[in-house]
Amino acid sequence: MLDIMKGQLRQLMRTRIIHLTFGVFAASFLLITFLECTVNTDDPIRASDFLCGSYAQAAGLILVSLCIVAGLANGADFSDKTLYHELLSGRRRSAVFFGRLIPGAFVSVLGTMLLLALPIAFLAWLNGWGNAIPVSAAVQRLLLMFFPLLRLYCAQVLFTFAVKNQIAGSSLSMLPVFGLFTLGCTDAAAMSGMQILKTLSGTPCLLSPLNCGYLAKFESWATYGIDLRQHYTYYPELPASAIALTVTVSLVMCAVYLLVAYHYFHTDDLN
Amino acid sequence: MTKYDWLAICACVLCALFLIRFAGRAERDKRTWFKLLWLVPLPIAFLGDLSGLTRSLVPLCLGAVITAGGFFTELAGRRRLLSGIGAGVMLLSIPCCLLDPRCHAVHYLADFEKAFTDMKRHYVLTAHKGIDWDALYAKYQPRFAEIDRTQDAGENALEWMRFCGEFYDGHVNFSPADEDAARQAARSALGNDYGLVIMRCTDGSFAAVNADDSLKAYGIGNGTVITAWDGKAPDEVQKMSPLNGASVLHLAEGETAELGGEPDADNNLFWSASLAAGIGGERVKVRFLDESGKEQSAELPKTGAYADRLFQAVRTIQQGVNIGNLQWQRLDDTTVCLRIKGMMYDTQSYQSSEDDANAEMVAEIRQTLLQYRESGVRDLVIDLRSNTGGSGSMVRDLVSVVAPEGEHFYTANGLWDDEHRTWATDADGNYTAERVFTLQGEQLLGDGRITVLVNSESISAADHMVHLMRGMEHVTVMGFTEPNGSGQAVGGTRLESGVLMFSNCVMLDENGEIFVDSGTDHQSGNGVDVQIPFDSAAIHALFDEGRDYVLDYAMRGQS
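YS: structure for the whole thing
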């Protein structure tokens, strides 16, 4: 299996479409960040202010890149039949399945995490960190993001192996992923008054994009003066229960998705 | 149990029953995607949960998981067994939902904990009002825990009103999500109607108001002095009311009244007997003075709900000139009235932080006032009764039109400590002033007199306006009571059972003290120049003749 993994990793690192995907999303995110922080040149937005403010709404885009890369990493070999050739040449099914899954996870999840950190690092370099929240809180959120991103990746793997197509699975999930992430990181659900949205927003561990949105959102409190100038206080501490749920539910769901995906692949590999 | 629960359970069970039948065909025809069908109940059960997570639907989810076991086998017998067991387990959700009192329960205690935490963090008048958070928590946490157990939405609303009353701050109030339950609970807690409302008069006596015609048989009418209600002084009786000291009461659809928990002790005194006449059993014994001044007694039967009579009485006392917001009414040859019901001209200007946000409104008011001046108007009555507040910039711009020429102090923002993300305080714990806001007076009315009418519902930005104008040359503030006495701006926390609002922003006066709001002495920084006596003349004018006594009184003062 190791040789398949090495080969897959080499292939992923050299696939132009993956470079292009990450490149376009990174450039878009940086552009949004740059525009956001140059709106008011008198009072430059610092990295922690941006992270607690409009970052979350822009970060939803980045999850879409994970869907695309996950589809490409696991589904590309269905179209060129490499996967079938491997099976027919006597490779174990588990080696074929996990040999693609693991390098794909490495590239897409870690790549997405890097993309998520990129604008913050850029802004911290440009305008400084600020004092909205400590750096440690941001790092904690980013590291925790690994678990729901992995869960999202595993769900994409399931879709991809079910439809046996590199594009269909990820295309179907892009819009719901972006929508659910936005729902998780904004107050839209509470404002809408719809019970279904309130339940989703109030229980972020139900779905991985919601969980990512929850981690990208910092609880805040706004106050203002007679001139309506607003001041924000942020509360970056996550409840222990939220951390525990994020980790355990993500890992359990990863296992469930992979179990179902592998079982389906096992009985449907040469179709 | 909601219709969505029924829908989800029925859909999942039907799906499982279909799979029992389908298992035979799936065994014969081994198309791989057929096995995916055994996973279908999972998302349906998941969607069912979205109508509100509840433990009662755990069997539904469990049944869907058992059914999903059919995905991992291709033997028809096993698939039938798993689907059958799954359907049976799913059906258990029905009795669970029907019998579980916490099925789709509202988390009243969690709401309290969240609101309490937010308020403790962000309520800006903690020191000024001497709020003891630990004592409040110890008092109210068990009550909300009990409400959480009983799931009583009405009692929850009443408890919040009692909690809000503890802050004697007009800006601390709770808007219940279930308004009907809140209204019903308030109506029930207000008690029975015995045909009258009792109000405390300025001379300290108690008088009947909004008295029913049927009481004439006993010799009781509007203005009759009430000496005892069931053997006690009416203000003592009020203390027995479950709503004594509570904040805003929801009495009718979209209508509220604030009759206790007032920021200012003088206003509390004014309403100190208003709840008394709802307290009693089948009959109450009332003692009163007849026309000759001799004490009489009568036994009054209950006739209905007190809330309606009280609400009518409150509206009669608190009335304002019956025209729209920022509308003018000529009162006589030399006097015109401007009614301001809320400090909001339009949404755009209300939300704007630009200096000229109200330019259109100012131009309109200036033009109207000049036209009235040309037609002989000298004096102005500004009716701020029941003004619910709004934009501070509108107050500044309105007052600048009529204020004496020169610069006038309005208020100062508290200094925001950006490093610690909180309002800055000095070594003694007092807030520090930052930016001072002033206005330039135009004195467009010349030497004409300005009378400002207020009541205890003139709050927030209306309080600001009174604070600004009181003491200006030619200005007289008058009313039965002082304005509300709540000057800080507000923030809120959204809960499952409603929204809690409270003072959240720091505004200071020219001495660097808290602007307007009352402190531990229960005296706000606002007041009236002329307190209109609430006496038999006022009561007869209001309740027998239907006149606007406050306006008439102001006009008598003008002339």
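YS: worth flagging: Chain A is about 75% helix and 5% strand.
IM: good catch. Also Chain A has one domain: 2-268.
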